[in-house]
Design a protein that fits this description.
Blueprint lengths: L5 H4 L12 H10 L9 E4 L2 E4 L8 H8 L6 H10 L1 H5 L4 H10 L4 H13 L7 H13 L3 H13 L6 H13 L3 H9 L10 H13 L3 H11 L7 H13 L3 H13 L6 H13 L3 H13 L6 H13 L3 H13 L6 H13 L3 H14 L6 H13 L3 H14 L6 H14 L2 H14 L6 H13 L3 H13 L6 H13 L3 H13 L1
Helix pairs in contact: 4-7, 6-7, 6-8, 7-8, 8-9, 8-10, 10-11, 10-12, 11-12, 12-13, 12-14, 14-15, 14-16, 15-16, 16-17, 16-18, 18-19, 18-20, 19-20, 20-21, 20-22, 21-22, 22-23, 22-24, 24-25, 24-26, 26-27, 26-28, 27-28, 28-29
């Protein structure tokens, strides 16, 4: 999860008043810089925010500020090498990792900062940094540069692992170049890697996940004469056939698996169970459960949890709760994810007290600890049933317990409840807690919820402030959000704001 910078926590938000020109705004967006207001005291919907002396920028912020969108990788390198501030920065692997994450959708900047770091005396990239950069290049369809980087790694004797090869193969397959993924496998021995079962499984898994199951099958029939398959090989095909909706082949693969002396495991059967669950064919699901028992491969907690989740989703609440009882009756021990699903099913069924009983009594009795999702499920249930006070109390208990920390999803139903009931003060406090106490950043869903809710509550100034903050955090708004806010600010005669929103809409 991306954290707010200290500037944002201290109130330096991307809030542009009418005195700031649109041209300045446009330049700021393109340079991804945070524009601070010159006034020393701002009135914000979150309270009065005072500006102190500007804190020193982090090394990450300095580098990011120097990298301009659209620059070539060589221009990025030159800019950073020639900059006096960047020359003073001590390049560490942590800094490089954070920069590569920051530029995961901008291959030119990612490659530029990678080369800049490489040029610094005494610094050497880790194998993971190379793998991350290869993945970024492949993700952005820069296949020639990806292969060029791989060749450079080989020439310079940088370690090339199966993980490296897997990333390259998957990016080829994701770009629709599955033949190149196969060619990559054919050449693994040139990188000092063996063409063994593990390498074959990586190729087959890559192809199956790209829906090229038939091609994977043909390649397997050739390779199995030289490379022995294992249980994982066949599980890959079971998953692949289910993915392309050919469950009969998945069943047949289980028989083939047995013919090769590999015993089907719970994963083999559970994959087919999930296939039937996704199609809400619960008759077939129960048949598979019986077959698993007959084959001496009883379902595990993951199998039962999957079935319960889909029964709940289809509003078959009684059957979902019966699955929970069936699991307990066969001696299968519950885990945290099972209890999360059970609490959700009880909440959806309107059995709030029973859900509380599971959370407060049964989980501790079975020594199963809650996680953030457990608390999130309980809080969402309380909010759904109009028990916001209990939801807030549980949030407090969560914070005090120290067992786990709240995330954005913890707050989402609470924020939604505040908007529903017009509790603006509570909304401000929750947002303040998220940002200042827990250092959480808002995701696109939360920004969208707040902006739409505040517009409905006739508080479009606050909604617009959040919109600007959203842009400043590099979170791209949805078009319908822009459209709604655009109409609202125009109605309030906020014409400068309308111009800026219109500019963002054109860029979407």
């Amino acid at each position: 999860m991306v954290l707010y910078s200290k500037k944002c926590i201290n109130g330096i938000r991307f809030l542009l008043d009418s005195s700031v020109s649109c041209t300045h705004f446009h330049a700021s967006c393109e340079n991804r810089s945070i524009l601070a207001l010159s006034s020393s005291n701002l009135s914000s919907p979150l309270g009065s925010l005072h500006y102190e002396e500007e804190e020193k920028l982090s090394d990450l912020d300095v580098v990011v500020a120097k990298v301009r969108l659209g620059s070539s990788d060589s221009e990025v390198v030159k800019c950073l090498v020639d900059d006096p501030q960047c020359q003073k920065i001590k390049v560490t692997q942590d800094l490089v990792d954070r920069l590569l994450r920051r530029f995961k959708d901008d291959w030119k900047s990612a490659l530029g900062v990678f080369k800049w770091a490489e040029s610094r005396s005494g610094f050497k990239h880790t194998p993971n940094a190379y793998d991350v950069l290869l993945d970024v290049l492949g993700k952005m369809k820069q296949m020639d540069k990806m292969m060029g980087m791989l060749g450079e790694m080989h020439r310079d004797s940088h370690p090339i692992t199966l993980n490296t090869v897997a990333k390259v193969m998957r990016r080829f397959a994701g770009a629709g170049k599955w033949e190149d993924a196969v060619r990559m496998f054919d050449e693994v021995d040139a990188y000092g890697l063996a063409k063994n079962t593990e390498a074959m499984n990586l190729l087959l898994d890559t192809l199956c996940k790209s829906n090229k199951v038939e091609q994977a099958r043909e390649i397997f029939l050739e390779l199995k004469q030289h490379i022995s398959p294992n249980a994982h090989t066949f599980n890959i095909f079971i998953h692949g056939w289910c993915k392309v909706n050919r469950v009969d082949e998945a069943h047949w693969t289980i028989q083939e698996m047995k013919g090769h002396g590999c015993r089907p495991c719970v994963i083999s059967y559970s994959t087919i169970v999930e296939f039937y669950c996704r199609r809400y064919n619960f008759g077939k699901v129960y048949e598979m459960l019986d077959e698993m028992q007959a084959q001496g491969c009883p379902p595990n907690v993951v199998t039962f949890t999957t079935i319960m989740c889909f029964l709940t989703k289809s509003e078959e609440f009684e059957e979902a709760l019966q699955i929970a009882e069936r699991m307990k009756s066969v001696g299968c021990s519950p885990d945290t994810l099972f209890y999360n699903a059970l609490i959700h099913a009880l909440g959806r069924a309107g059995q709030v007290q029973e859900a509380i009983q599971v959370f407060e009594v049964e989980m501790p009795m079975c020594s199963v600890p809650p996680n953030t999702s457990t608390y999130n499920t309980m809080i969402a249930m309380f909010c759904h049933h109009g028990q916001s006070r209990k939801a807030l109390d549980l949030l407090t208990k969560m914070e005090i317990s120290g067992v786990c920390k709240p995330d954005v999803q913890t707050y989402y139903p609470l924020l939604k409840a505040c908007l529903r009931y017009g509790q603006v003060d509570s909304l401000s406090k929750l947002l303040d807690d998220m940002i200042r106490r827990h250092h959480l950043s808002l995701d696109i869903s939360t920004y969208t919820l707040l902006i739409h809710g505040l517009c409905r509550a006739n508080k479009c100034e606050w909604a617009y402030h959040l919109f600007e903050e959203m842009i400043g955090q590099d979170v791209k708004p949805r078009y319908q959000t822009c459209r709604l806010l655009f109409d609202e600010v125009k109605e309030k005669h906020m014409y400068d704001a309308a111009d800026r929103i219109e500019y963002v809409m054109k860029k979407l």
